[in-house]
């Protein structure tokens, strides 16, 4: 049974989210502030964290960064204020996998939790016992859910790893942001800046010069493409 940590200083929000997630078959832990969230995550490692941006004792973004340092593979869904695009982008940059704007439908949140956990589970089930994707000095061990560059393990979030795996499986193919949102995130619609931010974050981890990418290149007017072998494509740079 998946374990979900719900972090919000509003007890009513926690109670409602707990009820819906429990009904959907999840074990739920709760925390009301930043310190309690980190303590809970260390004692009972969650399969997913639902995390409010505004918390007493430290922001949700700080908690997200701390979680990423301890467990890069634990998915995080941020709860952000409606219309606060800056919070959403900052959350994605901090390492969040997804976000839901407040006020939100508990059913929508449950569906987002299902989607994130399903993609993680599907990736693990899809992998063979020894499947490794390679591109030069970059390796992704699909079964172990790990990636390494020149022998050094990369700290990738679950969504970053899923994006990298998808691109490595389709080298030379251009994908629009809509394609990636549908094929990697499993969403038929959503904020396309989610893809942009994840591409930018992934570039910082796999490219020697993220401003002039050789592997994860921009295809102007289309989207993005993975160039196997790190071949440089003149003019392919930017978000």
Keywords:
single chain; alpha/beta; Rossmann fold; Arc Repressor Mutant, subunit A; 5-stranded parallel β-sheet; 8 helices; 12 strands
Task: Explain what this protein looks like in three dimensions.
- The chain is of the alpha/beta class.
- It has 2 domains: 3-124, Response regulator (Rossmann fold); 127-230, Orthogonal Bundle (Arc Repressor Mutant, subunit A), CATH 1.10.10.10.
- The protein has helices at 11-23, 34-43, 60-70, 85-94, 106-126, 158-169, 177-185, 193-206, and strands spanning 3-7, 27-31, 48-52, 76-81, 98-102, 132-135, 138-141, 146-149, 152-153, 174-176, 216-219, 223-226.
- The chain has a 5-stranded parallel beta sheet, sandwiched between helices.
- A hairpin with a 2-residue loop joins β8 and β9 (152-153).
- α1 crosses α5 (106-126), α2 (34-43) runs parallel beside α3 and α6 crosses α7.
- The longest helix is centred in the middle third of the chain and has 21 residues, at 106-126.
């Amino acid at each position: 049974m998946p374990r979900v940590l719900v972090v919000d200083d509003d007890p009513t929000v926690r109670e409602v989210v707990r009820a819906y997630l429990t009904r959907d078959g999840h074990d739920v832990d709760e925390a009301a502030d930043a310190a309690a969230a980190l303590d809970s995550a260390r004692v009972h490692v969650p399969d997913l964290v639902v995390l409010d941006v505004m918390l007493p004792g430290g922001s949700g973004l700080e908690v997200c960064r701390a979680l990423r340092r301890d467990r890069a593979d634990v998915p995080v869904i941020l709860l952000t204020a409606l219309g606060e695009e800056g919070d959403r982008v900052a959350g994605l940059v901090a390492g969040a996998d997804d976000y839901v704007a407040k006020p939100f439908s508990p059913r929508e949140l449950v569906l987002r939790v299902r989607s994130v956990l399903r993609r993680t589970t599907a990736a693990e089930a899809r992998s063979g016992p020894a499947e490794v994707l390679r591109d030069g000095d970059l390796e992704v061990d699909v079964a172990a859910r790990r990636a390494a560059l020149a022998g050094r393990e990369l700290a990738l979030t679950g969504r970053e790893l899923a994006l990298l795996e998808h691109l490595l499986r389709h080298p030379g193919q251009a994908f629009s942001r809509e394609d990636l949102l549908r094929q990697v995130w499993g969403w038929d619609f959503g904020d396309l800046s989610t893809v942009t931010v994840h591409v930018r974050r992934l570039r910082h981890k796999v490219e020697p010069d993220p401003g002039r990418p050789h592997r994860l290149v921009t295809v102007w007017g289309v989207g993005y493409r993975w160039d196997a072998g790190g071949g440089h494509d003149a003019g392919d740079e930017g978000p």
